[in-house]
Design brief:
The complex is a heterodimer.
Chain A (H helix, E strand, L loop, with lengths): L8 H11 L11 H11 L6 H11 L3 H8 L13 E6 L2 H5 L2 H12 L12 E6 L11 E3 L2 E3 L4 H14 L7
Parallel strand pairs in A: 1-2
Antiparallel strand pairs in A: 1-3, 3-4
Chain B lengths: L17 H6 L4 H9 L2 H11 L11 H6 L9 E7 L8 H8 L1 H15 L1 E8 L4 H16 L15 E6 L9 H8 L23 E5 H13 L1 H6 L1 E2 L2 E2 L1 E8 L5 E6 L4 H6 L13 E5 L8 E2 L16 H4 L3 H4 L7 E6 L4 H15 L5 H18 L5 H14 L7 H25 L9 H4 L15
Parallel strand pairs in B: 1-2, 1-4, 2-3, 7-11
Antiparallel strand pairs in B: 5-6, 7-8, 9-10, 9-11
Helix pairs in contact in B: 2-6, 2-9, 3-6, 5-6, 6-9, 14-15, 14-17, 15-16, 15-17, 16-17
The chains are: A alpha+beta, B alpha/beta.
Chain lengths: 171, 455
C-alpha cells in the first residue's frame, strides 16, 4: 500500500499557518508542530520519505529533520498499531500500580512491551512521566489521557478502542 | 483556609471561558498595567513581591527580568515554560486546563513589562489536549482585543502563540527549550551567554514557568508589597503543590508558603493523610530531582524544628538532612514502598531523558540504571552500592545543564537515608522476587525509625 506523500490542501493550509507564527527566516521553528501534523496524516509514524517531504516543505535539509525526529519520544520512526497505548511507568505511577497495569496489558493483548498485536490494532509502549501523577496509574492514547486505571477500566478501554476502530492521533 | 490567588476561582463553572473569567475580575491586571503603569513599574512590583521562579530553581523573578538586555536592537521575547515534565509535577497542567486565561493574562502583563511584541508558550507534546484549551482561550482573547494590535485601545501590541514539544524532559531546561523552539534537538546551551542577553533567535529572552507568569497579574492587582506579606521570609506568596503517591487526596493544591509539612500531609484540606491508614515512610517534596527524605526528617528538621513548606525550611540541613521545594511535585510514600525499586524507576527516567551531550550524564545515568536494576532484581553486590555513590558524585557538577545533578541527587540521597534497604536487597535476593515485596511485610530499618509518631 503505497500512498503518495503529499499533504492534503487543508493540511497544507494548517502547515502554512504554523510557519507564519515565526519571524522571517525562522520557519525551521515550525518543525516540531509540522512533524506532529505529518505523523497524524501518514498512518501514525514518520517514514524516511515523510521526513524528506517535511524537509522540502520547510526548505531545510533532510538531516535536520531526521536528527529532530529521532530525538523526541513522541515521533515514531517505525510503523505502530492503530492504537498506541503509552503506559506511564515512572515513580508516582509505579507507586500506584503501573507494573500491574503493564503486566495486565501484556497478558490481555498477548504481546510484550514494544510489540504490536497480530491484527495491528494495539501497540504497547511504556513511557516516562506524563504529568498525571495524581491520577495514577494512567496511559495516553492519542491526545487522550486515561487515568486512575485498574484492570476493569483497562479492559473497558480496550473494548471501546476496538469498537471505535480509529487510529489514535495526537492532533 | 489559606489564602488563594491562582486557584481562587477554580471551581466557578465556566471559568475556562473569557466571559466568566472577566466576570470574576479577570483581565483587570492587564487593564491596570497597560493603562496606568510603565513597564519598569511592573518589574519593580514583581521585585518587591519577592516572587521566585516556580519551575524549580526558585530564582527571584523580578531580578531575572531586570537582566534583559535593553540596549540590544533585536526584538525581545518572553517564552513561557509549560514543558512540565518533572516526575510528580502536574500543577501547571491543572492551572492551564482549568483557568487558561490566567496564563494568557500573565503573558500579556509580563510581555508588556519586558517589551516583548511576540511571545510563545512552549508546552510539552503530551499535553496536546491542553494545547487545544489554550488555543481556544487565545482565540477568545484576540477576538476581545486583549491580544493582537493595540490591546485594550493602548499602543501596545502583542502576538501570542503556543508551541508544542515532542516529548523530551530536557526541554524544561530553559536553553534546551529555546533550541527546541528553534526547531532543533533539545540540547542545552552553554551559559553564558544567558537567555536575557542571547536567547530565542539570539535575541534577549526571558523564560518563566507557567505558575510564575500566572502570579504576575495578582501582584499587579494587589501590589508587590501586599504579595510579599503572604508567606514567610524570602518565601513569599502562594505556591501550587501537586501531591501524589500514597495519600488519600492526590491533586493540585494552592498553599500559602509557610504551611507546615505535617498539616499539608495530614489535614483534610490537603492530602488527607496516608492511604489505607498505613505509615509514612518517605517523601520527595519538590519533584523527583530533589533529595528524598526519610520519615523522621519530614515533619521535623534534624534540629527538631517543625518543617515548613518554604524554600528555606525544606532545605534546612542541606543535603545531609534536608531537601528542596523545587517544582512542588510532592510524592508521598508509605511503608509498602520499596525505595530501591522507586529509585530505579527514577534512574531509568533520567537515563531515558539525558540528551546525550555530556559524557558523565549520558553514560553515568545508564550505569546507575543498570546497577539499580541489578540490585532491585537480586543480582547486586555490596560494592554496587558504593559504585552508585561514586557515579553520582562524578556526574554532579560535571555537565552543561542541571539534568546531571537532577539524576545524581535522588540516588545519592536514597542511599544516604535508606542504605540498609539497599543492603537488604543484596543480602536477601530470595525475599525480593515479588516486585511488591514490601507490601505484606514492610522493611523496617534498625537505624532509621521509618514509622514516626505522627497522626
Amino acid at each position: 500500500m503505497s500512498k503518495e506523500i503529499v499533504f492534503s490542501s487543508e493540511t497544507l493550509e494548517v502547515v502554512n499557518k504554523l510557519i507564519r507564527r515565526y519571524p522571517e527566516g525562522r520557519h525551521k521553528s515550525a518543525l516540531l508542530p509540522v512533524l506532529h501534523v505529518a505523523q497524524a496524516e501518514f498512518d501514525g509514524w514518520l517514514s524516511p520519505e515523510v521526513m524528506d517531504y517535511v524537509a522540502s516543505i520547510l526548505n531545510i535539509k533532510p538531516i535536520e529533520v531526521y536528527e529532530v525526529a529521532s530525538f523526541y519520544s513522541m515521533f515514531n520512526l517505525h510503523p505502530v498499531g492503530k492504537c498506541l497505548l503509552e503506559v506511564c511507568q515512572t515513580g508516582p505511577c509505579m507507586l500506584n500500580g503501573a507494573d500491574d497495569l503493564v503486566a495486565h496489558f501484556e497478558k490481555k493483548l498477548n504481546i510484550k512491551v514494544g510489540e504490536t498485536t497480530e491484527d495491528g490494532m494495539f501497540t504497547l509502549k511504556t513511557v516516562e512521566c506524563l504529568g498525571s501523577c495524581g491520577t495514577a496509574p494512567m496511559l495516553q492514547c492519542g491526545a487522550d489521557y486515561h487515568e486512575n486505571l485498574d484492570a476493569e477500566k483497562a479492559d473497558a478501554l480496550l473494548e471501546k478502542l476496538r469498537t471505535e476502530n480509529k487510529r489514535s492521533r495526537y492532533c | 483556609m489559606g489564602r488563594k490567588l491562582l486557584l481562587e476561582h477554580v471551581n466557578v463553572p465556566g471559568i475556562e471561558t473569557l466571559e466568566v473569567y472577566r466576570k470574576m475580575g479577570g483581565y483587570s491586571a492587564a487593564e491596570k498595567a497597560l493603562k496606568t503603569m510603565a513597564p519598569d513599574d511592573i518589574t519593580e512590583e514583581v521585585k518587591k513581591s519577592g516572587l521566585r521562579g516556580r519551575g524549580g530553581a526558585g530564582f527571584p523573578a523580578g531580578m531575572k527580568w531586570s537582566f534583559i538586555d535593553k540596549k540590544s536592537e533585536k526584538p525581545r521575547y518572553l517564552v513561557c515554560n509549560a514543558d512540565e515534565s518533572e516526575p510528580g509535577t502536574f500543577k501547571d497542567r491543572y492551572l492551564m486546563e482549568k483557568i487558561p486565561h490566567s496564563l494568557i493574562e500573565g503573558m500579556i502583563v509580563s510581555s508588556f513589562a519586558l517589551g516583548a511584541k511576540t511571545s510563545y508558550i512552549y508546552i510539552r507534546g503530551e499535553y496536546f489536549y491542553v494545547l487545544r484549551i489554550l488555543e481556544k482561550a487565545i482565540e477568545e482573547a484576540y477576538a476581545a482585543g486583549l491580544l493582537g494590535k493595540n490591546i485594550l485601545g493602548t499602543d501596545y501590541s502583542l502576538d501570542l502563540y503556543v508551541q508544542i514539544g515532542g516529548g523530551a524532559y530536557i526541554c524544561g531546561e530553559e536553553t534546551a527549550l529555546l533550541e527546541s523552539l528553534e526547531g532543533k534537538r533539545g540540547n542545552p546551551r552553554m551559559k553564558p551567554p544567558f537567555p536575557a542577553i542571547s536567547g530565542l533567535y539570539a535575541s534577549p529572552t526571558v523564560v518563566n514557568n507557567v505558575e510564575t507568569i500566572a502570579a504576575v497579574p495578582h501582584i499587579v492587582n494587589i501590589t508587590g508589597d501586599e504579595y510579599a506579606k503572604i508567606g514567610i521570609g524570602r518565601s513569599t506568596g502562594t505556591k501550587l503543590i501537586s501531591a501524589s503517591g500514597h495519600i488519600n487526596k492526590p491533586g493540585t493544591y494552592e498553599i500559602e508558603l509557610g504551611l507546615s509539612v505535617e498539616e499539608f500531609i495530614y489535614s483534610d484540606e490537603y492530602c488527607g493523610g496516608i492511604k489505607g491508614g498505613r505509615k509514612l515512610k518517605a517523601l520527595i517534596a519538590g519533584g523527583s530531582s530533589v533529595p528524598i527524605l526519610p520519615a523522621h526528617l519530614i515533619t521535623k528538621t534534624a534540629t527538631g524544628e517543625p518543617r515548613l513548606m518554604t524554600y528555606e525550611s525544606l532545605s534546612e540541613g542541606g543535603f545531609v538532612s534536608g531537601t528542596m521545594l523545587g517544582s512542588g511535585g510532592f510524592i508521598v510514600m508509605d511503608d509498602s514502598t520499596c525505595i530501591v525499586r522507586h529509585t530505579w524507576t527514577l534512574a531509568r527516567f533520567y537515563h531515558h531523558e539525558s540528551c546525550g551531550q555530556c559524557s558523565p550524564c549520558r553514560e553515568g545515568t545508564g550505569w546507575m540504571e543498570k546497577v539499580l536494576h541489578r540490585i532491585e532484581h537480586g543480582h547486586g553486590t555490596m560494592k554496587d552500592i558504593d559504585l552508585l555513590v561514586d557515579i553520582a558524585k562524578k556526574i554532579e557538577g560535571n555537565t552543561i545543564c542541571p539534568l546531571g545533578d537532577a539524576a545524581a541527587w535522588p540516588i545519592a540521597s536514597a542511599i544516604r537515608h535508606f542504605r540498609e534497604e539497599f543492603e537488604y536487597h543484596v543480602k536477601n535476593p530470595d525475599k525480593i522476587q515479588d516486585p511488591k515485596h514490601f507490601y505484606h511485610q514492610p522493611f523496617v530499618s534498625e537505624v532509621v525509625n521509618a514509622t514516626p509518631e505522627v497522626n
